[in-house]
Amino acid sequence: MTETLTLGWIGLGKMGLPISTRLAAAGYDIAGTDRDQERISEAAASGVKPAATLADAATRDIVFTSLPDDKALRAVALDGPLFQSMRKGTILVETSTVSPGISAEVAQAADARGIAYLRAPVSGNAAIAHTGNLTCFVSGPKAAFDTFLPVAQAFTRAQKYLGTAEEARYAKLAVNLMIAVSAAMMGESIVLARKGNLAWQDILDVLTNSAVGSPMVHYKAKSLETRDFNSTFSCRQMAKDLDLIVGAGHAADMAMPLATLTREVYGALIGRGEGEADFISTVRLAEWLAGLGEPDLEQNEGRLA
Questions:
Q1: What is the pLDDT of residues 60-86, one digit of tens each?
Q2: Which of 12, 97, 111, 162 is the right S-S partner for 167, CB 3.0 to 4.6 Å?
Q3: For residue range 108-127, what is the model confidence (pLDDT) as tens digits?
Q4: Could you confirm whether 195 is annotated as catalytic?
Q5: Domains annotated on the chain, with CATH
Q6: Catalytic residue (one of 14, 49, 88, 172)
Q7: How far is CA 223 from CA 8, 213, 228, 231, in A?
Q8: 3-state SS, residue 140
Q9: Is the pTM of the predicted complex or chain greater than 0.85?
């Protein structure tokens, strides 16, 4: 193992907090910082050393960033003290979902400072981050990936190296596009079945036990059994990612009809006040558009498959 590597973590939010504390539990010397002092205190209670400033966290061998969007990454990496504080020859691992464009700018700045930059967006959500069952897609210098891999294995179940440039960014956007469109389809499918007088649990059973029963369908069907719309990944977050997806497609001279339409679905959910609800709230939007109220969850009690 490579616990002798020192780690710095910038951004102790929904994903950064559970990942950094998992690394601390694995025996790594890790220091973390966040704009929210309560987050730093929470991380410290689980073994992450408090870093007084971003610059303090950035002095480590491998520095991670876990940030909400392009604007935040620009503020930290390009307009902030990150690269001035990092030592030549160290590694920056950026785990967020951001655009290929801003990522390429960070790569150029890192190269100018002699810093190896890995794009390593994680796939999964905050509910499972503490379990080590995330996956990550990685691109950047291969030697840096080889150094990073044992650390990645402490908080992910699978790691895929994809190339030397922005390949990992496109991989993450491609995955999230499939998830977003699938959620929109799932909402309409369930409501169509309700219009055909299928009981709530029956249509969920049909979807999970048919050819479309993907891991995502199984996962979301489980929460839909009780109509649990508490957020694992919010409608607002999905809208942000769809903006990145459409932007990346347009920058590549690619038409994005499904992504664009699905973005409107999430815009409607945000407009209805459901921005912080789970992204599978597409079901509730489809019900509203169809003039349906809440289903009877007891309708097929006693005859579940």
A1: 999 999 999 999 999 999 999 999 999
A2: 162
A3: 999 999 999 999 999 988 88
A4: no
A5: 6-165 (3.40.50.720), 170-289 (1.10.1040.10)
A6: 172
A7: 35, 15, 5, 11
A8: coil
A9: yes
